[in-house]
Specification:
The complex is a heterotrimer.
Chain A (H helix, E strand, L loop, with lengths): L1 H19 L4 H22 L24 H32 L23
Chain B lengths: L3 E2 L3 H23 L4 H16 L2 H5 L4 E8 L4 E7 L1 H24 L6 H20 L3 H19 L6 H32 L4 H6 L10 H15 L8 H4 L5 H10 L3 H14 L3 H24 L3 H22 L2 H32 L15 H15 L5 H15 L4 H27 L15 H19 L1 H17 L16 H18 L1 H15 L3 H23 L4 H22 L14 H19 L3 H21 L3 H24 L10 H26 L6 H12 L6 H9 L1 H23 E3 L1 H7 L3 H4 L3 E3 L1
Parallel strand pairs in B: 1-2
Antiparallel strand pairs in B: 2-3, 4-5
Chain C lengths: L3 H24 L7 H19 L1 H8 L3 H17 L13 E6 L2 E6 H29 L1
Antiparallel strand pairs in C: 1-2
Helix pairs in contact in C: 1-2, 2-3, 2-5, 4-5
Classes of the chains: A mainly alpha, B mainly alpha, C mainly alpha.
Amino acid sequence: MEAGVAILIGLFFTVAVYLMLSKQLVRILLGIAILGNSVNMLIFTNGRLTREVPPLIPPHLYVPETATANPLPQALVLTAIVISFSFFAFLLVLAFRAYQELGTDEVNKMRVAEPEHDQTPPQGY
Amino acid sequence: MTPAVIDDTTLYAVLAPFAAAVVAPILTRWFKHNAAWPLALVPALIFLHFAGFIAPVSEGQSFVAAKAWAPSYGINFSVYVDGLSTLFALLISGIGTFIILYAGGYLKGHPQQGRFFSFLFMFMGAMLGLVLGNNLISLFIFWELTSITSFLLIGFDHLRAASRRAAIQALVVTGGGGLALLAGFILIIAATGEIEMSTLLGSPDIIKDSGLYLPIFILVLGGAFTKSAQFPFHFWLPNAMEAPTPVSAYLHSATMVKAGVYMLMRMHPLLGDTVLWTTVLPLFGGVTLIVGTLLAVRQTDLKLMLAYTTVASLGLLVMLTGTSHEKALEGAVLYLLAHSLFKGALFMVAGTIDHEAGTRDITKLGGLRSAMPVTFVAACLAALSMAGLPPFIGFIAKEVLYYGTWGWLELGLPITIVAVIGNSLMLVIAAAVAIKPFFGPKVETPKHAHEGPVLLFAGPVVLSVLGLVLALTAHTTGVLFVGPTLASLTGVFAELDLHLLPTKINAPLILSLITIGLGITLFTQIDKLRALIASVLMAIGWGPDKGFDQFVSGVVSISSLFTRFVQTGKMQTYMLLTFGFTAIAVLVPAYLVDSFPAMPRMPDYRFYEWGILLIAVLGLIAVLVAKTRLTAIVSLGIQGFAVALIFMMFGAPDLSFTQFMVETLSVVILALVMTRLNLSPRDHRSVPQAVLTGVVAVAVGLGLTLTLLAITQQPFDSRLSDFFTEFSRSIAHGRNIVNVILVDFRGFDTLGEIAVVVLAGLCVLALIRVRTKPDEEELAAPSEISKSKPAEVR
Amino acid sequence: MRTVIFRTFAPYLSALMVLFSIFVLLRGHNEPGGGFIGGLIAASALAIFGIACGVASVRRAIVFHPMSISGFGLFIGALAGTLSFFKDQPFMTSQWLIFEMFGVEIALSTPLIFDIGVYLVVVGAIGSIALSLEERETD
């Protein structure tokens, strides 16, 4: 059951990493969005896959009648989705502001924190 | 004999100086320099406490006391009181009393005097903890505390670069040695399973038999030699003379530098009396002795001369300890006692001369005899003891140590020759220090010299007189102090009979006479000797001191180069390395332990399920090859919705809805930002770069797929999920298990997660609102305040 | 985007979505739904309203600043956890108050308050992000 999704997840990771290794901010952002999805699916699949039975308890019972999908990874992934979205938004705005301030969308040209020709550290006591 | 357990008073005695360190600045604010009087009571009381141990210890008893500190690691705050530690504790607290008084007079009116007292007390506590330490780990902590407090004391005058350099040098050398010591201790603990010194000493051969003797020996020596300034680590000690004189008198003569000797003596029953020990220690000690005395002769600064003779004395002590010969060890103990007394006194004398006459260069001093009579007497007594003349303790020490070296068969002759040369040069220095400033015609000094206050001369007088008294009562000294200490070194308790004057003419007496004769001859030629040594040193041109500077600047340059190498400033490199290592971390261990998954069977998906997977793949490919912004955004949405459908497909409606909403919002905000900016989604990678990144990306994807397959092929432990399923309704009254986990079972986690969401929202808001507009700001308000505030919140 | 039809239609759509989001929030404990999903639906409603009628009118409509709503959500989420202190139980132990009103069983509980807190946090934070980005487009 998991094999097909596992291969798909590998493909997701490949595309995400490939995009994140580019020079353009936009492509990096796209990569981050896909990376979030791939990690979520990785966690989800780790908890094993069960077809079509949500982890709900019928109104007249105290435990589900049949085996349901694993609720634990679902709970983990649910918050992960929202948080990864929040951070995607944060990174998006960060990239947008960086582009505005620095005038470039190429990451290798953003050298404010680590200037190209940094002076040597002071010697002495 | 097993040590007796005593109450915690001794533990509090060790901690008392730390309490005094807290009080000292307050008292100093109230009483100015007179605070020294009440403060000196603290070490005096500690001295009295340890004086109470003299009688039982001299009968061969020993004591332990302990408080649990980190019991799960076997770390206790524990003390072990025997002959050796009693002698050291008495020296530390006794000399400490006078040093506190002396510091009161020496730094009179100094704005930071309270801080100085504080540092001194902290050092005193650390030193007491070191010499009494029973638990190896707490002993190490006190050991490093002495390094740190000595750093603070040497760098007390931190506005001068020389002070800072000396302080850093001392810290690097002694602190680095301390780390070696820690490694040695850990090896001891690993090899023997014992962590308390007292139990280790109970079975002396435990380390020699363990097979780890050599590494333990080297590491312990690394700690002891750096602390006790053995050649080639001797250079930090003379430089430490940058410290105020009370520090030099206390740390660099009587106490801290003796910690290394203490460690060697303490370890002697465990590590000593092996071929390695009796080869390495005498060698290093002997070289240090000769080098130290020769360098001392070269100096004209009183403190530096004394500092180099301290190096030499430490070398002598190490050399004697290295013989493992009972009589030589006895000489070492006696010399240790004598040296602490006369060197402490002489340092204080040097400080007093400096303080009162304004210089401590012996070429600019002379005829102070009449101006400073009390100091003069103290200086003479101490110098006679240092020179090894009767009737002083220094003489007895020299007699006994000659007896020991002469009687030591293996290397007796070379050791004796080294000792004789060293001692005669020591006599030269003693003479130079005592005679040159006080005798001869009166020389005009920068300050008008006169006798210092009682705070300044109390210490030197008491210590130098003590050197006389202990010698006059030689038998009692031997029974009370030397005998028990020697017992700690040899492990055998024996009665000791010391005499002030030799009973018959024997080899040591002849050697003494040779020493004195040689010393006096050399003293008459001191100026020639000094010039000779200076020219030799000039010819060598390089020393460990210069080496330290090269080492420091080398470290800075190498770390700078390394930082430049690791932190290229190119994000692409960082990311490439990160993902490259991710791939390695996933793939290589799996390859090494051969945990790759079995070939999976063809999953039995329905046709529409295959369709959903296909849509996801198409979405991904579309993002990759998208030529325009709009295509990229839409394709991103497609893969996101496909993920939502996959969640739906495997029974996760909550996830599916959430994913659906999030993807919608993602596409919306992405579109909002991208339409405003000319950000092109096209790839600008060169072909080799694209291939390299592609390989890394495929490796990561492949690795994670294989890992995931391997995991899912393992049996599944469903205990946690079963718990939630079983109790979701009965305990938490909820039928949607996912939601119950979120808001009830794991509610605390969710609280943390929504806090993260709030923070992300705040950060976005801040990022959008903060504007840097330097031009407008300067126009509006060209004041200092607005310039220092480049960012403005709109 | 700002067609007449969209502008006329959007307020009603948004209102319906907010209503639906509250429904999803409240049923969340027993059926699919809950604070996270409800919050996202409501945030989307705000975003749609903002695109259609301008951010200023959204800000007028929700009265408070979205981040204040978010902060308030975090506050009541934490507060819901402290109620268990009154019964001398550890932080976040759930408390239930189940009673009948007009023949319908009503269950009030601290997890419900907590879920409302989650809802408000998500509405506020995500809504704030969306609105501030839209604002950039219109200014």
